[in-house]
Design goal:
With 418 residues, the chain is of the alpha/beta class. Helix content is 44%, strand content 17%. It has 13 helices and 14 strands. The strands form three sheets. A nine-stranded mixed beta sheet has the order 5-4-1-6-7-9-8-10-11, with helices on both faces. It has a three-stranded antiparallel beta sheet with strand order 12-14-13. The protein has a two-stranded antiparallel sheet with strand order 2-3. Helix 1 (10-30) crosses helix 10 (283-295) and helix 8 packs antiparallel against helix 9 (236-255). The longest helix has 22 residues, at 64-85. The chain binds S-adenosylmethionine (SAM). S-adenosylmethionine (SAM) binds at residues 12, 47-49, 63-64, 101-104, 107, 134-135, 161, 163, 167.
Amino acid sequence: MNGPLPVLEDHSLAKHEVLRAYLVNYLRILAQSPHSEGVRVTLVDGFAGGGQYRLPTGSVVGGSPLILLDALKEARALVSLDRQQRNIRKPYTIQAHIHLVEKHRATAAHLQRVIDDTPEAHVPNTTVQIHGGSFDAALPHILKDVRTRQKKSGRSVFILDQYGWSQVNLEKVSTIFSELPSAEVFLTWMIDSLVNFLSKDMLEKLNPALARSGLGDALDAEKLLAIKAADSAEGDLTWRRAIQSLMTEQIRRVSGATYCTPFYIIPRQSRRGYWLLHLAQHLRANEEMKRIHWDNNNLHHPGGAGFNMLGFVGTNGQLAFDNRFDAYAEQVTLDALREDIPKRVAQLRTPLRFGDLVQQTANETPARLKQLQEAVFALEKERNLIVRTKAGALRRNAHSLADDDVIELPTQMWLIPN
Ligand SMILES: C[S@@+](CC[C@H](N)C(=O)[O-])C[C@H]1O[C@@H](n2cnc3c(N)ncnc32)[C@H](O)[C@@H]1O
């Protein structure tokens, strides 16, 4: 990277904040067991950039590689404090291996200088390795390294912060999940640049880009254009959301992820939004990601509030609500869940474990576990749902609702139309 540092825009700051918060929380959760003496973890920044930016005010701030190192430092401090407070004497070590990949040669050289000058990169139990070249070329070495050092778990977080949407091939993401089942992946995806440029003139460019992204077998530009043409009469938002919802499902399917949160970073300066997708194989990871979203109002999600997260038209025929993860969104979410949960139980025509309801709806709702518990508890209080603990007792508060609790409809409620 030659010349002045690039300017860090608002939306990248918001993205860094989410990454930092998620990673600190992730590392703290790993350290919860009082018997554990430590953990090995790998963080991969597959599109690392040069490691430094300047703000419009002129001051210099770190890029994502430094965010990873900061999160590691903060997590180590918080874990040590937490263990002191819980009187746990056993020392705890987070052994972190960080892989940074940057294709552009001058940018990689700048990143190397930044890392050389960053004290957090040279503390004990931290190894930073820079790969000049493409992410695809570095991936086999990274996977081999993780499997060698972390034979059991392969615990790792991959950050794939591409420009646009066709630099990451989703089949590579699927390789990550099949080789490292505990891996989690953050993927940025400029969905609005795809949607904004959708026109007949762009067909020749879009189809090769869809093929590069790994979506070529599932989607083609003609199909996307047909959705735009069919729904244009309904207004701009309708076809945009139809395409977004289709893309989310295909991204999750091709990447081999079990769970996906398709939420937006809000860029204040521009109308072009982008997704910060979190892809994972475990429900707990999905829940933690949703928690970070609800705690951080820099993000939003246009889509249904209940079990219609990917839907673009609400059940009332209006355009679905724009979730800003704020107090108002909490209320709308709770109301929507109170309508949707009995309908779901009625559709299934069988009593349902609460844990199964949470798992089955994880990709359909932005709601966190706490909100699902509150909705089920409220429905029980209103006598619109029966909740039985394993021992047959009544639940006295929402947050003690357990996975093994069984929920069912009072008999007359089976008559609700599906
Ligand atoms: C959006 S920027 C990364 C910003 C960085 N993650 C941050 O938040 O500070 C994308 C970077 O990926 C690099 N890049 C582009 N294609 C790549 C590839 N195939 N493999 C690795 N890096 C690539 C670009 O040179 C650019 O520096």
